[in-house]
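A quick aside before the break. I want you to see a complete sequence-to-structure record at least once, exactly as it would be stored in a machine-readable document. Don't worry about memorizing anything.
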Amino acid sequence: MRIMIETSEIQNRADFTFIRYAQCWEDTEVVLDALAIRPGDTCLSIASAGDNSLALLSRGPEKVIAIDLNPAQLYLTELKARAIEHLSYEQVLCLFGYQRSEDEGLAPRYVFDLVSPHLSEAARDFFQSNESAIESGIAGSGKFERYFAIFREILLPLAHCKKTIEDLLRPGKSLMERREFYEKRFMTWRFRLLLSIFFSNTVMGALGRDPSFFKYVDSSLPDFLRGSIEHALVEQDPSQNPYLSYILRGRFGDVLPFWLQKKNYEAIKRNIKRLIIKRASLEDFLMSYPVSARAIDCFNLSDIFEYMSEDSYRQALALIQTRSAKGARLAYWNMLVSRHTEAGYDLAIRARETESRDLYRKNRTFFYTDFVLEEVAA
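That is the input. The structure line, written in tokens, reads:
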């Protein structure tokens, strides 16, 4: 596995020496439905924590190329891939902290020692120097996950007791019952106050993401969250939302992330050798991508365009177009910076607005303000 070093605009503003995201916080099922991957496709994916890049393998593409600027995120992606390849399903759950066992043979440190010989030297050294993350469960080791832990363990109890949280996530409630619960028991003045403070742009930038990620932001996250949380807790069934469960309880319960659901996990395992991991920015990867190579069919682009100026965004789209197959699909997210292909860009990239809206309504990660699906026309 060869990892190459490239540069990008955001690299000059943010620290890329630690795990920012130990889990992917973009709804996997929305991404998969949007990209409509076919057997034989070539997919390019922002690695992040690896979950969604791995999930793409479940659809049988020819290959998935996972790229990221942060080597720590790539080491994590590599660990997940090698764990799937060489460990049992139960061992994988225990290694990452999704399941606890009294069996010493399933202790995270013991399981890590089983998979470590299959890691690159750089990945092995990284995790061996972060033993506390292994012992406590790697799934909670990212900066973003620690941010949610502060909210869950320190602030949330000021607004709601554990029984209220468990009642919220209890299955079987009708739409009317969910609305009544939301209005009468959950969205209290204390909880609204927590939202306005803890999920402010400033606090999330300092504790959850990175202040530099908000360079191009001109709107407020708490203002948006009040509406999106109502959608997640009332219009959708919160008992079926693994992201919400982890934020509020620190565990997924009966609904695991897509890549860890048994049927999906087995499909990923069958195709795991089709994953390629590379350290690069999107722009530099595409510039170095051989013209003679198969054109790229699917792009899972996370929310990387939020961190770019509009000019950089437009240039990135133009570069994507030159490396895309006809009909290639682009899927990406906006949190607080609006990025959409504009007619004035003079590109053969077309918005699929109806599909984007329909998919966004299904989205269970309620802190994104928009989901964008676009297609390369020629």
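Two observations worth writing down. Residues 1-7, 213-217 have pLDDT under 50 and may be disordered. Residues 66 and 203 are 30 Å apart (CA to CA). We'll return to this after the break.
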